[in-house]
């Protein structure tokens, strides 16, 4: 058997780069998709929706309660649609999505305030779309400190305590993870890598088969591994460029904090890229033409996007969906990238998510290498 | 390099796809330095056979050697020394002419790469168009480029799969000139084709139909060994004559060639008896001629079909 030759490998890599440069559409896809998604999601991140419909349940009629309603409306974030609703009604409105928030003023609100105790204010938010509620919640949090300063002046000034008089209790509904805007960028990186890496390898290899150039290639002394690696190396480079692009944009455009170790994240990204490339190769060994390869790529991509915790909070999904999600590489990568970027996780801490990635890659690689055609059989 | 007697020597090759025998017990020899024509209608198994000869497909049965290397175990060695030109143009259309040749030279790890590519471009007459994309070439030029690219690593055996399909007659003639030049320089060439006229240009021929090799030898041998005789008849009323002769016993094949009719049969006695009544018919001139290769091949194809149908029952 011929041994692996770096010279031939280089010839293939060189050819791939020339073709990549000429194939504007694929190139546009590889660089354009990350940029496009980033801008699209970037707007969502930056979005600062105001006048969100709010229902207020008041269990007491008092000057304090009226003041709360007034302040909420004045903040600009809350559009008070009703102050007459009862508890049940308010829950229904939340469930149906008619309101984004339900604010409950308990019956002992003024009584506690007047006794100098901390009064509670309950804010229930429909947090399915956290980017919609995040800023409003931040605003009301800031507000509670000074919420009743004005009312507790004069004769009642002695009541004004050292600490804020009102304690805000927040229930984020439907989204126990409290998926924040910062979560999107680390996740987006995984989504973009999944899509571009799988598609570029799957299409790249099936294109050779479809155009008949694979027959020519296999008739030369080239080693199948050289073809495979030669196809992969340019893709890894493109994947790394996408990663850097997204990370830079995350930092400079959207000020997403990066508390972890960059090198650790890059290593995890490389593992994740490799995992997706292996999936792409396996797809190409099954697909008969580019169309099939594209369909299969999407067949893998869609569940990845939907069940990995990118679109919907992972813990909010039904059990069966979570089981599927646990198999997908994107789920684990998402945990790693969020852990490293936002929580500053170290290698030991991301290991529980790293080994499933490695396992997935090994299994799929075994299938792919076995199926990769050395001959035309 | 191994010593070998025949450039290609395969015995009992079988290949089936989806349970259908595409190549069936095929035994064939290509001698050193000859131009061997591999003929057969579309779908008869030519491409499949050639792929097995150069180690691209694993046969389901049979054995063989190409350039002395075992086709089952030493396909990597075969690939080094064989130039295979695929039926379909399979260079990279999105690479330039030069880039294509350069890529092939790199894959074969050739020394003096630049010189070789330059020389090849010069010989092709494409030196001044070397930076044009290969996809923009016309059919004839693509064919020549493909030939040049599989000659780059100086193979000792060329396997050309229908190199002249879809190429205009002038380009076809030039192509065959080129093939004979290569053969004269000591390279063995196997050319598959379904053009009958190209058969006459080969030293030896193999005829395949329905996956079975029906005949093998020089054109002269094929005609002589076939036991096949042909009457050429011209004149008025040959259309009616053709219809009347069609179903006569002893007449295997009636073929029209312009103003002439070729009436052939495997048994001379029976054939003569069949045409006896019409020999003296007015306006018709009869001539006992050598069967043409084309008559023979059509006869062989019919025979193969009959076998094929018979075997299927
Ligand atoms: N990879 C394949 N899978 C299934 N059938 C095939 C394959 N390759 C060839 N065939 C079938 O085998 C037969 C012979 O094909 P081929 O060798 O290409 O004939 P030829 O080259 O003489 O036209 C055809 O019927 C074709 O459909
Ligand atoms: Mg063919």
Would you write up a description of this structure?
By secondary structure, chain A is of the alpha/beta class. Chain A folds into two domains: 52-173, abc type-2 transporter like fold, CATH 3.40.1710; 180-371, no CATH class. Helix content of chain A is 64%, strand content 9%. Chain A has a five-stranded mixed β-sheet, sandwiched between helices. In chain A, strand 1 (52-58), helix 3 (63-75) and strand 2 form a beta-alpha-beta unit. Chain B is of the alpha/beta class and 313 residues long. Chain B has two domains: 6-222, Rossmann fold (3-Layer(aba) Sandwich); 227-290, RRM (RNA recognition motif) domain (Alpha-Beta Plaits). Helices cover 38% and strands 28% of the residues of chain B. Chain B has eleven helices and 14 strands. In chain B, the strands form three sheets. A six-stranded mixed β-sheet of chain B has the order 6-7-8-3-9-10, with helices on both faces. Chain B has a four-stranded antiparallel β-sheet with strand order 2-1-4-5, covered by helices on one side. In chain B, strand 1 (6-17) and strand 2 (20-31) form a beta hairpin. Chain B is globular, with a radius of gyration of 22 Å. The mean pLDDT of chain B is 88. Classes of the chains: A alpha/beta (377), B alpha/beta (313). At the A-B interface, helix 1 and helix 8 of A face helix 2 and helix 3 of B. Chain A: GO terms for molecular function: ABC-type transporter activity. Chain A: Residues 146-375 form the ABC transmembrane type-2 domain. Chain A: This is ABC-2 type transport system permease protein. Chain A: The chain crosses the membrane at residues 25-45, 184-206, 227-250, 262-284, 296-314, 350-369. Chain A: Belongs to the ABC-2 integral membrane protein family. Chain B: Pfam families: ABC_tran.
């Amino acid at each position: 058997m011929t041994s692996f030759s770096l010279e031939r490998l280089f010839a293939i890599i060189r050819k791939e780069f020339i073709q990549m440069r000429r194939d504007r559409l694929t190139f546009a896809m590889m660089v354009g998709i990350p940029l496009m998604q980033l801008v699209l999601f970037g707007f969502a991140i930056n979005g600062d929706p105001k006048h969100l419909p709010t229902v207020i349940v008041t269990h007491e009629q008092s000057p304090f309660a009226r003041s709360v309603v007034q302040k909420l409306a004045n903040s600009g974030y809350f559009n008070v649609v009703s102050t007459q609703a009862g508890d049940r009604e308010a829950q229904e409105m939340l469930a149906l999505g008619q309101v984004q928030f339900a604010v409950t003023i308990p019956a002992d609100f003024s009584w506690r305030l007047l006794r100098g105790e901390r009064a509670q204010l309950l804010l229930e938010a429909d947090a399915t779309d956290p980017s919609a509620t995040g800023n409003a919640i931040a605003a009301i949090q800031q507000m509670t400190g000074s919420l009743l300063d004005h009312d507790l002046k004069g004769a009642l000034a002695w009541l004004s305590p050292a600490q804020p008089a009102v304690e805000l209790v927040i229930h984020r509904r439907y989204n126990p993870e409290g998926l924040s805007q910062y979560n999107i960028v680390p996740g987006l990186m995984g989504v973009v890598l999944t899509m571009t890496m799988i598609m570029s390898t799957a299409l790249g290899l099936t294109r050779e088969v479809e155009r008949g150039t694979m027959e020519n290639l296999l008739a030369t002394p080239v080693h199948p591994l050289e073809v495979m690696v030669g196809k992969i190396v340019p893709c890894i480079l493109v994947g790394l460029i996408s990663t850097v692009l997204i990370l830079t944009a995350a930092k400079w455009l959207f000020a997403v904090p990066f508390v972890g170790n960059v090198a650790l994240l890059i290593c995890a990204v490389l593992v994740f890229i490799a995992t997706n490339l292996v999936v792409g190769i396996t797809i190409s060994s099954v697909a008969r033409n580019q169309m099939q390869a594209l369909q299969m790529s999407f067949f893998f991509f869609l569940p990845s996007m939907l069940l990995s915790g990118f679109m919907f909070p992972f813990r909010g999904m039904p059990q069966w969906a979570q089981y599927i999600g646990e198999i997908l590489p994107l789920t684990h990568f998402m945990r790693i990238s969020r852990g490293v970027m936002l929580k500053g996780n170290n290698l030991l801490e991301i290991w529980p998510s790293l080994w499933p990635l490695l396992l997935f890659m090994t299994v799929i690689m075994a299938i792919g290498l076995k199926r990769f055609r050395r001959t035309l059989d | 390099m191994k010593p070998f007697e025949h450039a290609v020597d395969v015995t009992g090759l079988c290949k089936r796809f989806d349970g259908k025998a595409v190549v069936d017990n095929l035994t064939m020899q290509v001698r050193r330095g000859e131009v061997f024509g591999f003929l057969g209608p579309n779908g008869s198994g030519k491409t499949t056979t050639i792929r097995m000869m150069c180690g691209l497909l694993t046969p389901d049965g049979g054995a063989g050697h190409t350039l002395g290397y075992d086709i089952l175990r030493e396909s990597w060695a075969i690939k080094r020394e064989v130039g295979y030109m695929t039926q379909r143009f399979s260079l990279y259309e999105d690479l330039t002419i030069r880039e294509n040749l350069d890529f092939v030279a790199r894959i074969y790890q050739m020394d003096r790469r630049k010189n070789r590519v330059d020389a090849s471009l010069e010989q092709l007459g494409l030196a001044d168009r070397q930076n044009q994309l290969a996809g923009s070439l016309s059919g004839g030029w693509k064919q020549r480029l493909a030939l040049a690219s599989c000659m780059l690593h100086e193979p000792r055996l060329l396997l050309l799969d229908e190199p002249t399909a879809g190429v205009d007659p002038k380009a076809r003639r030039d192509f065959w000139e080129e093939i004979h030049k290569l053969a004269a320089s000591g390279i063995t060439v196997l050319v598959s084709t379904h053009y009958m006229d190209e058969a006459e240009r080969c030293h030896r021929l193999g005829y395949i139909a329905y996956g079975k090799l029906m005949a093998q030898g020089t054109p002269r041998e094929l005609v002589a060994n076939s036991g096949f005789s042909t009457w050429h008849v011209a004149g008025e009323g040959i259309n009616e004559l053709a219809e009347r002769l069609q179903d006569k016993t002893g007449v295997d094949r009636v073929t029209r060639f312009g103003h002439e009719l070729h009436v052939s049969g495997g048994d001379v006695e029976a054939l003569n008896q069949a045409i006896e009544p019409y020999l003296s018919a007015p306006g018709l001139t009869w001539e006992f001629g050598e069967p043409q290769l084309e008559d023979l091949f059509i006869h062989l194809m019919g025979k193969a079909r009959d076998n094929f149908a018979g075997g299927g029952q």
